[in-house]
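Example 3.2
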Amino acid sequence: MLQVQNLSIKFKTQNGLFEAVKGISFNLKKGETIGIVGESGSGKSVTSLALMRLLDKKQAEISGHILLNNNSLCSIPESEMRAVRGNQMAMIFQEPMTSLNPVLTCGYQITEAIQLHLKVSKAEAKERTIALFNEVQLPRPEAIFDSYPHQISGGQKQRVMIAMALSCNPEILIADEPTTALDVTVQKTIIELLLKLKAERNMSLIFISHDLGVISEIADRVLVMYKGEVVEEAPVKQLFQHPKHPYTKGLLACRPVPGLHLKRLPVIADFLDTNDKKAETIKKIREGYAYHLNEIKDKKTLLYSREPLLKINNLSTWFPVNGGMFSRSKSVVKAVNQVSFDVYPGETLGLVGESGCGKTTLGRSILRLIEPTSGSIEFGNTDLRSLKKNDLRDIRKDIQIIFQDPYSSLNPRLTVGDSLMEPLQVHQFYTNDTKRKKKVLELLERVNLLPEHFNRYPYEFSGGQRQRIVIARALALQPKFIICDESVSALDVSVQAQVLNLIRELQQEFNLTYIFISHDLAVIKHISDRMMVMNKGEIVEMGDPDEIYYHPTEEYTKRLIASIPGR
């Protein structure tokens, strides 16, 4: 149905042409799902944009052939290609918030496409849109029709994008990372929805992801891309059971596995750089990083024999909600409600739950970045809620936070060096900027960055590098306690493994204590000594990660675990 032959894509840069895709070929049959996997920068998304002819010809040089039903898409004029998009081939983009127009309602954006392609009346286009919203299982379809993108959740925005892609009954649907930043439960729902719609409409599907767990559930055949090339192609079962290329083995090994206790996660370099061919099996490398059961037991006995570093007692953070312009009635959102727990020195306490459960609000309330409504926060022998602003600033050097989005938490106008030196200047660490710069260079080296990165700006780094920068900034003041708020959620699985390994190494080196917040239960189980499950502002389950994973008591926890892809 779709034939891609020797496709190459080169981008014009200041240093000449950069080859992003290097002569790849593959075929897609009717009703088939192809999964394309690889890290950021491997060429996955660029390939999909080339198939839709959405790359700017002034910036990209494209060669090779793209045939749809034996008709070339490379040679037809733009007016004809416009008819192909939507009618024959449609695309769900990676980030729905930036793909939807913020000043137009969700309903208008879909009726516009239907009217343009199918030449129907406005009333019929609306009727079809409401039917599509029902088909993609959106709640209150009539209300969402008149809603703007910012008024609905991430999962709902993704469903609107799916409805838009399906609006003109395409033969091929390209889904570019459609579940990357979603909770596991929402992710599972979206995967099930795509499979259901594909079967009902007999569509072909190209599903792009860096998450092999998701690919294992949705694809018939898998292409593995690395540095612009297809390094392996195989049926999904064969690829997972008998991977051949070292890069594929590395991708499969990077993901935390619930049944194993590893001191560190394998990374792609373990497979690409090794000369020992016998050690290249995933099992062999994982065995080299595994804990002995006695080590885990001894570590936990030592951890919980100490006095807690942090004591949270009946902490609540409520937000008032106005009833409206003319209404006096007020209600409250109980984002955090009567939460109590202790954190011990050197411990990693994992906090897991879906978006909106109160995880981030709890983390920020502990630091008083959001003022709690009631309850107590005791750090060491200090009651944090009783401190005035100046005293709180002094103690913040001991309590740091790594924010969820490293790009928005770094000042784009400051170089990385200035961003790292700033907290040292505020808290008057060291006697002059020369000594502070020396310390910053040491920190950059410790998080595997280079001295030349000191004078670069945040936009000049990849997502994984920016995450290392904010970790270095959190370490600058030599804290005792760090809250990691979704610090690996948006990273490739390989970069995620590197950052998780770094977080654990730094804990041992600097005797750090963590609260590690995530919606990814597999990650939480790997990194945590103890786990808390949060739902609707309350802690619903707390205990040993293994015990919770294999013997959950709450229905909510059971649902979270059942939603883990590739489990």
